[in-house]
Each structure stands twice: as C-alpha cells, then as structure tokens.
Amino acid sequence: xxxxxxxxxxxxxxxxxxxxxxxxxxxxxxxxxxxxxxxxxxxxxxxxxxxxxxxxxxxxxxxxxxxxxxxxxxxxxxxxxxxxxxxxxxxxxxxxxxxxxxxxxxxxxxxxxxxxxxxxxxxxxxxxxxxxxxxxxxxxxxxxxxxxxxxxxxxxxxxxxxxxxxxxxxxxxxxxxxxxxxxxxxxxxxxxxxxxxxxxxxxxxxxxxxxxxxxxxxxxxxxxxxxxxxxxxxxxxxxxxxxxxxxxxxxxxxxxxxxxxxxxxxxxxxxxxxxxxxxxxxxxxxxxxxxxxxxxxxxxxxxxxxxxxxxxxxxxxxxxxxxxxxxxxxxxxxxxxxxxxxxxxxxxxxxxxxxxxxxxxxxxxxxxxxxxxxxxxxxxxx
Length: 382
Ligand code: BGC
Fold this sequence. Notes:
Helix content is 39%, strand content 13%.
C-alpha cells in the first residue's frame, strides 16, 4: 500500500493521530502528539511502495549533482522508489517536473527550489493529495504547504566568510583602510539573504568606521539592501562581468583591491577570472577572496592561491539527514529537527534541521576534504 493510501486510510479510520506529523505540524506539535493506539488500522507502507520525488535546481553546479546522486543513492539503498530531476535553473521547468512527480503518485517531495517564492500553487496541489514536502537546502517561501526544511546553517556560512576577512586583514586590531568589494547571491534565493547577513554583521562596522572602503560604492548600508548587489542565478560569468566592470571603473588608476566578499564558489570562480584578466597574480598583492561549497575547481584555485577560502558544506551529511527524515515520515515517527524559530517563510515557521558548515583554507584541505574522502588526493593533485 502506498504512503498516500495509508494516510487516507488512517484519516478515514480515525487513526489520523498517528500520521499528524505527515500533515506537517510544527515540531512542537508533533512532540505533543499522543502515541498511536495499539492495533491502529494503518501500518507504515513497504519502502518499495513509497515514491520520493527529488527536484534539484541545476546540473551546472557541482554541488547539486552531488546532492542529487547522494540522496537518490541513499533512498534507493533503503528500498524507496525515486524520481530525480534537474531543472536547468528554470522555474517553469521545475514546476512542471513537480507536476509530473505528483501525477506519478509521489508520496514525498524533496525540493531544492530555484525561486523560493514561486512554488505555492504547485505545493497547494501536492498538499491536496496528501504529499509531504521537504525543502532541501533552500527554504520555500510564502506557502503553508512546506512541511520540513533541512539545510546548513546559512547565517553561519556568511559569518565564517566575514570573520575570515576580518582576521586576514587584521581589522579587529585596527588595521586599514582596505578596499573591499562585496557580492551577494541570487536575489530569489532565500539563502542568499542569510549568507549576506552573516558576513555583513561582521563587516559593516568596519565599513562604518572607515577601515573598509568600497570604491565602487556597492557596499549596502544595511543587511536588508543585500539584493542590490545580488547576482541573479548565481552565474559565474555574471560575477566575472560585474567584477571586471568594478575593476575597470574604480581600480584602473592603480588603486589596489584588497578583499572580495564572494558568497559562494560559482561567483568566486568568475571573480578570480576577472582578477586574472586585470593582471592580479597569486601572491601577497592578490585580494583575499571568500567562497562556499568546496567545489573542486575552487579547491584547486585555493591550492593555486587564486581563492583564499571556501565554506564547505558536506552534502553527504545533508542527504543523510533528509533520508532519515523520509524514513521518519514514512514510519509515522516524529521528524527530528533542531531549529523551530529561524526559518519563517512568511506564512509559518518551518521546522528545520540545521547542519554545521566548515571553513576550508589551504592549511586544512587534507584533514577536511581528503581525509573525509569528499575528494581523493588525486582529484586535487595532492
Ligand atoms: C546554496 C549554495 C550554492 C548556491 C548556488 C545556495 O542556495 O546554499 O550552496 O552555492 O545556492 O547554487
């Protein structure tokens, strides 16, 4: 019997209490749920009768390929049916993929959204068919129909980037002034706001004190203005063009660029290209450049001195967390979450499981990325 049928039966037989966690109540509410009655009519369905739809945003970024294949592999090993789709960063494509998954009888949808505000209608459809929805990595906004969220601590990602720049430049010791060019992620990605806020809470005081200056003028006056420097779709080429423009317009006279706040690796890749194009070579004069994800090309750039750090999010742990959420949902158990306050999607606070990110520099690549077998030494030319 499929999970959807079990849920319907449970509702009809009055054993719905057992499945109230499926209906996406908050973690507190699930904790209050009385235990299922002995001999209740419904049982957890067999794993092979459960279909999990996995919607990923794009194949163009290394991390999403890993996310998708890790999660698909884990769920299949647990016996579930899966349908994994990538959407070329096209919102309409993702919506029609979700529609197909619903039509195909999916019981659970795991969604890394492209535009976090565009999925309310399709999720209303999913909810009307009793499908449980897990937001993967990115929160889905403006809908009551998202049940759980699993991600890395997005604010902490930005904080690590900000603290790295603070330390490298000696800002806490009063050093400066230094030039800083900040970038932010895609304006339609809820995570990008958290990344920027985490970094800007560290850096803005130094902008205000004059220890950091931004010749391009693109230093937001508050966290809320982050979208003004966002790169739509997280594109490397757009970041490269933006960095090249800023370098040509504001640094051509020979003023040095000391630091770049890049929220992730795809932007950092484009920024590094722009720096190279403007004649910057690895060494003391090369700007401090941040990133996020630990993509292979960026780790190679760190080794080559073209990027200073990345915030690594071990996508294997996120996939494992989501796989265990799926298992808990199917078994009608309480779903484990560790944050029931932070992720307000505009309609509700979505119960969340947050994982910790790790800062990686040239000094700890071996112990973080290689010892954990995220990469082999050979992948990184070590
Ligand atoms: C993810 C990052 C990723 C970015 C671009 C964000 O939502 O959290 O890990 O670099 O999207 O795909």
